[in-house]
């Protein structure tokens, strides 16, 4: 019942209650009033009239009682329904909250807390399901387009032939075919050095042919090269290499740094999944 109906029911309750009490008072004094105002009336006639009015009184009071009971019943039913709706609403809110918490737990990056729209888009890409290399390629493409980079590459740290390597797994506008494998040992070249030392390296005014020889980004010669480790909790999961035809601003470097934290979580999650798969295979064998 809505609030307006509650008010109407309450008003009716008061009217019925006051009216019933007033009627009871008037009818109880009916006999005395007749004798006082009409002395010539026969007492038997008065008694007969009193009986008729008594029947009327009890009938009216019965109707009033039923009406009052109905109004009280409506109030009680409405309160129970209100509590039921409230409990149902609380249950739905609780379920929704739990569902949102579960979704947040499954996401690699909690993008709900990210206010910057460009960072949020990268986080949403990282959170998407599918092949990790394709997801990272979408992410580095988004990053490169936003900062107007010429080329970019992502290297993932792997263990091969008892050596720790950084293998190219994704890129943006690379000048060589997809079938070409680019790999660096830890400590080898710019990429390997950044992976080993875990620190960002920025090179401006790059000489012609320098990237083609050292970084593996192809034959183009940009003006600035940014190479940064993909790190979480002091653990290197990869290296990103971004080339631009203009120097990187502080805002761009801050943006890249934040995006790298998302990539680190993705690569960490991927490494954990592979480790569990290998453990499961060894157990089955």
Automatic annotation (TrEMBL):
A UniProt-annotated Pfam family: GAF_2
Residue numbers spanned by region Disordered: 82-110
All copies of domain GAF, residue ranges: 131-258
Residues passing through the membrane, by range: 56-76
InterPro entries named among the record's database cross-references: GAF, GAF-like_dom_sf
Alphabetized Gene3D superfamilies for the sequence: 3.30.450.40
Biased segments, Basic and acidic residues type: 93-110
Protein name: GAF domain-containing protein
Classification of source organism: Bacteria, Pseudomonadati, Bacteroidota, Cytophagia, Cytophagales
């Amino acid at each position: 019942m809505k609030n307006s109906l509650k008010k109407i029911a309450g008003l009716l309750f008061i009217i019925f209650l006051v009216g019933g009490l007033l009627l009871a008072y008037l009818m109880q004094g009916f006999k005395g009033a007749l004798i006082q105002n009409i002395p010539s009336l026969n007492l038997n006639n008065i008694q007969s009239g009193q009986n008729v009015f008594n029947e009327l009184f009890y009938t009216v009071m019965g109707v009033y009682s039923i009406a009052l009971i109905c109004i009280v019943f409506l109030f009680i039913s409405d309160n129970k329904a209100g509590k039921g709706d409230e409990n149902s609403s609380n249950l739905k809110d609780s379920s929704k909250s739990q569902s949102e918490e579960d979704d947040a737990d499954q996401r690699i990056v909690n993008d709900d807390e990210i206010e910057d729209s460009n960072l949020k888009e990268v986080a949403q890409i990282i959170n998407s399901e599918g092949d990790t290399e394709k997801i990272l390629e979408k992410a580095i493409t988004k990053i490169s387009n936003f900062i107007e980079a010429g080329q970019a590459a992502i290297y993932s740290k792997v263990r091969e032939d008892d050596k720790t390597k950084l293998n190219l797994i994704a890129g943006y506008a690379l000048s060589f075919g997809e079938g070409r494998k680019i790999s660096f040992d830890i400590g080898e070249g710019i990429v390997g050095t950044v992976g080993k030392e875990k620190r960002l390296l920025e090179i401006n005014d790059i000489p012609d042919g320098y990237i083609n020889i050292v970084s593996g980004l192809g034959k183009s010669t940009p003006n600035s090269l940014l190479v940064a480790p993909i790190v979480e909790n002091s653990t290197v999961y990869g290296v990103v290499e971004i080339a631009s035809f203009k120097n990187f601003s502080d805002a761009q470097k801050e943006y890249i740094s934040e995006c790298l934290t998302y990539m680190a979580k993705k690569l960490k999650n991927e490494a954990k999944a592979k480790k569990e798969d290998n453990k499961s295979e060894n157990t089955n064998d």
